[in-house]
Amino acid sequence: MNLVMQNYPDKFTEESKLEIEALLEHCLDGLGESSEKFLATLFIRAIRKHIGPTTIDEHIYLKRYEVPQIELFNVLIQQFPFVRYSHSIVNQTIADIVQGESTVTILDIGIGQGIQIVNLLERLKRVSGLRKVVVIGVEPFEDALNYAGELINSINYPYNVEFIPVCSFIEAIDFAEIGNMVEAAGGPLIVNESLALHHIQHLNDRHKVIQSVRALNPKAFFLTEPNVDHFEPDFFRRFQNCYNHFYHIFQVIDQLPVGVKEKNGLKLFFGREIEDVIGGSDHERFEKHEPSFRWVEKLTVGGFKMVNGFKGVPDDMGYGIKVDYDAFNGCLGFRFKTETIISLIHAECI
Amino acid sequence: MNVFSSPVIALEYDDIKKVLYQNWNGFASSIQFREGIDQSLAFVKNNEVKYIVSNTSAQRPVGPEDSKYAASVMPHLFANGVKAMAFIMPKNVITKLALSSFAKDQGMPPNVKYFDDLAEAEKWLFTF
Which superkingdom (chain B) (predicted)? Predict the structure, then answer.
């Protein structure tokens, strides 16, 4: 991969192209059985437009590993420990916080198809005395938002549920309007975001969103974010960060109790993120992850303090993943070997 | 005896051992590479060459089309008296990968083999 990195973006000579082609051909042979080969292929694919055409079309090889999205989401939610446990820990912690409340308002930033919120609503069934939950779901993709609404409404709860869909990017939202919704709903406000804030393109917008959330005076603000610096503008550093991050993720995928087809489907799924992180120019990129300490910095500046109130943290997550609360950085990290893959942050207003 | 030389190849002939040595060096453009192959064939056609040692230890990768071209010339070499051919493997890992992949795709006859060093290659060649 050093070869690819050294020649990016416009130093690919005929010689280096042939070398990359040889490397790609080597990787494609036995692709499905080797994480390293799969990862290298995805990285080469990601910067393909800079390398230019070669005689090998890796898309044909990769296509055979595609798995229907619905199957992938099931694997991600049920088997992929970083998603499964982050949802479970945050949901259990929210359920603990709202004990004794009769009304709760949840602002779910990037609600997606509503998988996490439905699990949370399920868990809230055990909160005695709870009579009403208002869910304000923010999501820029209308189809996903509609699906989330249908999913929420398809379940019976022992309390009233009101779902307010807001189809927008969070940075484009009118927070005054959200404030009115929160005030009308009543009860303490819990704000949750899972893998959403890193899609905000500009730093000042990230600060603004966090400050706007702070102005809503939530009882708790939960963030779930990959702990990796893909905001880094320098390509070479970003490339290294990206390789290191996904190398560790792929090692975990290799251990999942699912078939080879699903494992490779998951790797291909993450290939789209790799393509975004290293394939696009800085203004085209969407997956701008930041390490957790930077989110903590923004939260601190915005008027939050980090707390370790997490509930339901498993003693053993399996797959060699360690879960530790990092008191210095104020986050709960899911670490595999030397890489903290994902972090959960629990913030409260100062 | 030096037979031909260019920036990417030196052809040397040992008329006692009847060995033609192809010493490849660095990256060859398609034209340069094919010139080296064509010069080798021309020499084989006009001289008594029983063995060829293709020393690719300092060679950089060759494109698939040029590799195919080289492969297409090999039957002509054997038809003109060459009994066996030995390749000295490239030191560059990626060139080695390319060569291995080429060998796998083409399928090598028993009188063509890859070696890490020259002495080993010659020892094998002279068994033919």
Answer: Bacteria
